[in-house]
Design brief:
The protein has 259 residues and is an alpha/beta fold. The protein is 39% helix and 15% strand. It is built from eleven helices and seven strands. The longest helix is centred in the C-terminal third of the chain and has 17 residues. It starts with a strand and ends with a helix. Bound molecules: adenosine-5'-diphosphate and magnesium ion.
């Protein structure tokens, strides 16, 4: 059965998109079929996947709006692109997704629109679906969590890393108690780890609080992350990339946790 993984943290700049994209490709390197969904109106994952926004095919926001009858009905099959270099299928987003909270505010069962869109016959063609969430606790995040098997929470190992984490885990608990009892926290992922006192201090705190929910792997800080987005090429496909190896190790850890 396909496993659906949300990459979530309402804080921006913590490494969600980098993790979503690189975990997706790392999973394909390990012979899995992966669909990546850009669920952030900033469309960073789409850009990473070298999305051509003039390709005339519908996007994630067309799909959402179509499903609630605000726009034309769209078939999910028509929204899936293939990124050959990085071996993934993906659904891009666009800036219209930024209106989702407002537009969907009066829609019945607005937390389960994505779940109803991700039809089994599509999703089950994949081993993993990875959803790159937007930095907020709004209706998009609810939709992602409502349809997910598990959630990965990237945390940048710097001061103020903990701001909002309790609120996020609170939202996850609410979703588990109401619309998605199968949802689990796969793990809290330390990102941009440095050899500084601040980074060490935050890591120790994360270990104390999250214990076995903290991944074993640490994603270190390296300028190669930025190069990788500029090249539109996943880190694990760049020769001798240490960060690429870390994301391959993360893929192994995720596979074994969800097995
Ligand atoms: N391990 C890393 N080392 C250095 N820079 C990183 C690393 N991971 C991400 N970045 C950079 O930090 C910025 C924010 O990362 P991003 O994945 O876009 O975060 P988010 O999706 O949470 O906003 C980007 O410019 C990205 O290239
Ligand atoms: Mg992002």
């Amino acid at each position: 059965m396909c496993k659906i993984i949300s990459i979530a943290n309402q804080k921006g700049g913590v490494g969600k998109t980098t993790t979503a994209f690189n975990l997706a490709t790392a999973l394909t390197v390990k012979d899995n079929k992966v669909l990546a969904i850009d669920f952030d109106p900033q469309s960073d994952l789409s850009k990473y996947a070298d999305y051509d926004n003039n390709d005339d095919k519908p996007t994630m926001s067309d799909l959402l709006m179509g499903k609630v009858g605000i726009g034309k009905a769209v078939d999910i099959k028509d929204c899936i692109r293939h990124n050959k270099l990085n071996r993934i299928d993906y659904i891009p987003s666009d800036i219209n997704l930024a209106n989702a909270d407002l537009i969907l505010s009066g829609v019945l069962s607005r937390e389960t629109i994505l779940k109803r869109i991700l039809k089994n016959e599509i999703v089950n063609q994949y081993d993993y679906v990875i959803i790159d969430c937007n930095p907020s606790l709004g209706v998009l995040l609810m939709n992602a969590l409502a349809t997910s098997t598990g959630v990965i929470i990237p945390v940048q190992t710097q001061d103020f890393a903990f701001d909002g984490l309790n609120t996020l885990t609170g939202v996850i608990t609410q979703i588990q108690d109401t619309i998605n009892s199968q949802l689990s926290i796969i793990g809290v992922l330390p990102t941009m780890v440095e050899h500084t006192n601040a980074s060490k201090r935050v890591l120790e705190q994360l270990e104390n609080i999250y214990k076995d929910k903290l991944f074993n792997i640490r994603i270190h800080k390296a300028t190669q992350a930025v190069e990788s987005t500029q090249l539109r090429k996943a880190l694990c496909l760049i020769k001798n990339s240490k960060l690429g190896q870390e994301y391959l190790d993360l893929a192994d850890e995720v596979i074994s946790i969800l097995a």
